[in-house]
Amino acid sequence: xxxxxxxVHEAGVVIFNQAELEQLHQQGVDSQGRMVAKRVGIKDxxxxxxxxxxxxxxxxxxxxxxxxxxxSFNRAIDSRxxxxxxRTAASLEVHEQVVRDLGDSIGWFANQIVRLLTKIRDRIxxxxxAPGADALPSQRS
Length: 141
Known about the structure:
- The chain is mainly alpha-helical.
- Helix content is 55%, strand content 4%.
- The protein has five helices and two strands; from the N terminus they run ααββααα.
- It has helices at 2-10, 18-25, 42-56, 69-84, 96-124; strands spanning 27-29, 35-37.
- A two-stranded antiparallel ribbon has the order 1-2.
- The longest helix is centred in the last third of the chain and has 29 residues, at 96-124.
């Protein structure tokens, strides 16, 4: 999504401000004014990339944090961190709840992507209102 949003920006279809470009490039300015790589957590990255990807295609989008599976997504991320950076042998134990959280997380994520792509499809289906509409191929015969 980051790459697509940046490509649309570079084509001049949508213009992102400097802060948004820094987010998309995962960069920031250090105390001496230099551009440096910035570590972005997956939740922040997902929030930013989906919002800016949608905007690149002329619509607005925000993740659904009210879905009960959002909590599972957060727990699954915590489990991933625990598995990748174990502090004790117990950190590597896989419990039934972890497996349930992973399943719910996949469902939540898939639902968010479907919602996002549906909003974009609906926007593109009305080309006269989409940014860069004159550059989009017509879907109608």
